[in-house]
Design brief:
12 strands, 2 domains, mainly beta, about 0% helix
Length: about 150
């Protein structure tokens, strides 16, 4: 409940002691419903996305404290990860990417070092490696190949 027995409705904000916005969330009948944003204490965006009846859905994006994007995932209404899941190192370099089907990694998976050098390529089914996969060290030398 929110103030004198009322449920939250509309956009609500919270703040850090330093005055920076901590979060901004839309509510309907006391449940998170609509867009939300969360900030790091330094004022940089920490995450953003959508909620429907208190559940996250659609594209959810997270950010490192320095402002670079850290992850992007998509959720169906029943909280199952779908679409492309991607992650980035705190220097902005891509860290990994894979396709999500019914909550499991499927198909091509790639991972990179902070330098941008490719670290791994694999094929996944239900989150497990199947078929071909390759690994590289940070200098680009092949360290493992499976066919």
């Amino acid at each position: 409940m929110f103030g004198f027995g009322k449920k939250k409705d509309g956009v609500h904000k919270e703040y850090y002691p330093n005055g920076n916005t901590k979060n901004e969330t839309s509510y309907k009948d006391g449940l998170r419903h609509g867009s939300f944003k969360v900030w790091h204490e330094n004022g940089n965006l920490q995450g953003e996305g959508q909620c429907y009846n208190d559940l996250q859905f659609g594209k959810i994006t997270a950010y490192h404290e320095n402002g670079f994007k850290s992850a992007e995932h998509e959720y169906s209404f029943n909280l199952v990860r779908i679409g492309t899941a991607s992650a980035w190192h705190d220097n902005g370099q891509m860290e990994s990417t894979c396709k999500m089907v019914n909550g499991f990694s499927q198909g091509s998976y790639s991972r990179w070092y902070r330098s941008g050098q490719k670290a791994e390529e694999a094929t996944l089914k239900d989150g497990l490696k199947v078929g071909n996969s390759s690994n590289w060290d940070e200098n680009g030398n092949i360290t493992y190949i499976k066919h």
